[in-house]
Amino acid sequence: MPSELNPRSSSPLYQQVMDDIVHDIASGLYRPGEKIPSEADLGDIYDVSRITVRRAVEELVKQGKLTKRQGKGTFVNEAEEGPSSFQNDDIVQSFSVTCEANGVVPGAVLVTRELAPLPDGGAAFFGGACDGRAVRVKRVRTADGRPLMVEDNFFDPERYQFLLESDLDGCSIFRLIEERCGLVPRNSDSCVLSMERADIELAGLLQVPENEPLFSVRGEYLDQYGNPMFLGIQHVVGKHYSFRL
């Protein structure tokens, strides 16, 4: 169902409305061929102006997700036929948002979370402030229930200690951090995309054969104020994902 918008978010209200409509399409609330609520009704649902709703709808029409029919309303387009692959135009973009933009339901299965030593090179990124340790969160990310990646992220233990207690199954950590702290990730210059082969552990988590080709993405990410946010290592099933760099 539609979610409450966050007026303190750095994301504009029309973008939040867009993201929520895309999520509702992916979850099946609005099905292909069905009419979505009118602009007036959406304004009431999200408690925003019709101008804000109109821009969100127009952007989704441009993206091919909605179609306006004169005198009838706005309808959800049929999903395009094509290969089951995902394109991420921004490596730091939330996996949940990427899935929703591709018309599938995102998921997350927690593998482990702990206060753990940083990987090689991590201490320099955090400036030595975290004494060589970080909040480590390792999860399998799924799309329509199918494993697509293992994300292994290391967060500043002082600012993000709440992640050790939060429910992290099935949620977007980026959204959780934005709601709790008002912070959003930004790309840094230190981001490396390479290829690897699935070892026994990754093969089991991703439900692929051992030695399956994977993308490996290692990056150091800042918040919008330039402060270290997290060091991330992602292991992505290559045949289901593509990056535009």
Automatic annotation (TrEMBL):
Keywords: DNA-binding, Transcription, Transcription regulation
Coiled coil: none
GO molecular function, one term: DNA-binding transcription factor activity
Domain spans labelled HTH gntR-type: 11-79
One Pfam family named in its UniProt record: GntR
The keyword Cell cycle belongs to this UniProt entry's keyword annotation: no
GO biological process, any: negative regulation of DNA-templated transcription
Domain of life according to the entry: Bacteria
Keyword Transcription (UniProt): yes
Designated name of the protein: HTH gntR-type domain-containing protein
